[in-house]
Write a structure and sequence with these properties.
The chain has 260 residues and is an alpha/beta fold. It is 28% helix and 23% strand. It folds into two domains: 79 residues, Hypothetical PUA domain-like, domain 1 (Ribosomal Protein L25, Chain P); 161 residues, Alpha/beta knot, CATH 3.40.1280.10. Helix 2 links the parallel strand 6 and strand 7. Bound molecules: S-adenosyl-L-homocysteine (SAH).
Length: 260
């Protein structure tokens, strides 16, 4: 859910809500209590106001609030404002970190356009449980805020060995390897231009780094590209966001102009 929109901001997308329902002209959409509360008590809207809805499939649509109450809200979909756009297929495979920062990773990775978040339990991962519902809520809020037309999938946590054992061969891996700081990420990605438009995944290790045998395991996969992020040792969340930015700038959708 978005923070109160700045009134009059030129690029103010207004209130945007992610819904599961199909979106088409004349479609009725019912909001559950939480989203209704948000509209009524946080954004102080009322019946008759217009909001934008998106569901990751049908583009973005204007909808008019027909009723707004404690138990829920009813909206009537009116006109499409944006067509659904194809988006890069880019997973972030990350070793979960402590609560506040994992929320940060979910939000920023969503803004960076990832298509999925895959928590990975590695040898040095210090976190034992991952609240995927919390990750999804953070991703939805970030998607509403950044005017995305989709919300990344949040997969259940996997052990690194299991993930590697069943790794889809066609998905390229950008491995953030702090022992390979001599391999510059942008120059390396530029040489992988033939893999533009293919499925990719960025792998970032835990606070304690990958164990050597984990790096060996990952390097043996087909289509792995180990890279460094310069000579400074970055926190896992910093490294993840920095690498996603480089990937989007070289192989992703920061290169082509987006259609409105
Ligand atoms: N072993 C160190 C590093 C962990 S940093 C420690 O214990 O603090 C967490 C993860 O961020 C690393 O596993 C790696 O995936 C990534 N990372 C951090 N700095 C990096 C760099 N300069 N180059 C490549 N990856 C880096």
């Amino acid at each position: 859910m978005t923070t109160p929109a700045l009134s009059g901001a030129p690029c103010d997308p207004g209130i945007r809500l992610y819904v599961e329902a199909p979106l088409a002209a004349g479609q009725a959409v019912v909001l559950a209590a939480a989203q209704s509360h948000y509209l009524k008590n946080v954004m102080r809207t009322a019946a008759g106001a217009a909001v934008r809805l998106f569901n990751g499939r049908d583009g973005e649509w204007l909808a008019t609030i027909e009723s707004l109450g404690k138990k829920g809200a009813a909206l009537a979909v009116t006109a499409r404002t944006r067509r659904q756009q194809p988006e890069p297929d880019l997973w972030l495979c990350f070793a979960p970190i402590k609560k506040a920062r994992i929320d940060f990773v979910a939000q920023k990775a969503c803004e960076m356009g990832v298509s999925a978040l895959q928590p990975v339990m590695t040898r040095h991962t210090q976190v034992t449980r991952v609240n995927t519902e919390r990750l999804r809520a953070n991703a939805i809020e970030a998607a509403e805020q950044c005017a995305r037309l989709s919300v990344p999938d949040v997969f259940p946590p996997r052990k690194l060995d299991d993930l590697v054992a069943g790794w889809p061969a066609g998905r390229h891996i950008l491995l953030l390897d702090e022992t390979q700081t001599g391999i510059p990420i942008v120059d390396t990605l530029r040489r992988r231009g033939n893999a533009r438009g293919r499925p990719w995944a960025v792998f970032v290790g835990p606070e304690g780094g990958y164990a050597p045998e984990e790096l060996d395991l990952l390097r043996r996969l087909p289509n792995v590209t180990p890279v460094g992020l310069g000579g400074r040792l970055l926190r896992a969340d910093t490294a993840a966001i920095a690498a996603l930015a480089c990937w989007q700038a070289v192989l992703g959708d920061w290169t082509a102009p987006t259609n409105p």
